[in-house]
Amino acid sequence: MNVKDHLNSLPKPLVITLGVIILGMVGVIDYLTGPNFSLSILYLIPVLLVSWYAGRLPGIAISVACALTWLVASLLAKKYHEYPVVLYWNDMMELAFFLTVTILITALKSSLQREMVLAKTDYLTKLPNRRCFFEFSEKELGRSLRYRHPLTIIYLDIDNFKTVNDTMGHSAGNDLLCLVAGTLSRNIRSTDMVARLGGDEFALLLPESDAESARNVVRKVMNSLKGALKDDWPVTFSVGMVTYMLPPASVDEMVKKADNLMYAVKLAGKGAVRHEVVEH
Question: Which member of 26, 53, 225, 230 has the lowest number of beta carbons within 10 Å of its beta carbon?
Fold first, then answer.
């Protein structure tokens, strides 16, 4: 774990405490160096730390604390007290600068977080997208390899989806995709993932799921889809499912195998599930 990840994992009160400790150290150094050295830039360290990892309100609080510390150090150690207006004006400028940095840095972090979410989210269904699915699968593949746990991938395609778009309109097609996405996401465990890989194709990854538990999941999913769609939609589902008792060499291999099984179902007449268990 790198420093950034370690700081992200720290509780906010601990980050704030760390910021206050750094501020105290900077204030002492500022006092000891006297009027010949400006250490304003060092006050940005606790401001940036707390603003980025603890949020805007703690950032504002530490900014005020930095300005007050700078003022106290100036009053105790520096030699231009004969111009108190200048001293207090400079302190107000320091405060304004720290607050500006806090607002900008928290706005930047918020924007980056939104972009990261959008980059991994399907715009229509709000499910994880292909990129997110592959990243999640890489991690689970590593865990499966380390602990020798089974895992299952399910590849699901909506049969006759083009017919829905052609006869009922693209808006109806979008409604169908959202209905399927919502149904799938409500019928998996918190440790599982469902994603829209593109078009009318979805994938589910079930960590630590052997053949029997995977069959229970797909049975539950198919029954829920049937109940949600009722007779309102002229579609069925072709499903390819692979259970790996030992992990495959790569995520690409895993997805391709499940995809091939799904297409085999389509070629055989659609609307069915084909399950393969890989023992080695």
Answer: 230
